[in-house]
Amino acid sequence: MAILYRHWSPVTPRSSAAVWAALAWVLLCCTTGPAVAKGGVWSPPDLTGFLLYAEEEADGDGDGTKETQIRRYRNSAGDSIFSMTTKGGLWAWSLASGPAGGTDPSRNYVIRDSDCDGAFDELYGLSDQFQVPDCLK
Asked: 81 and 93 in contact (C-beta within 8 Å)?
């Protein structure tokens, strides 16, 4: 029976393990909601070597109004930083590394000041969703 299974099935024991591992990863990563680390304080990225290249208004709280100013910076290595300010309060920084930085989470993140006290107390991945803190709405 095992010989027929291997002959007729496109799934081998090795590929089956890979499928289950991939499924477990998707379930763990994609069903737990946004990843937010609390309990720490993170420093804004260092702007040394970065140049401001764009400023724009954006909808930071999803209400259809562009109330948030975004400033974008880039360096010669291809790294980019942006800041988000609403009603004069700077509430988020993001660092995205260029090709040399890969996916290193210490070089690819968003930090957010959740309560407008000046301390960036939430850490997000680049693909996580975040909004203007309630204290600036």
From this structure: yes
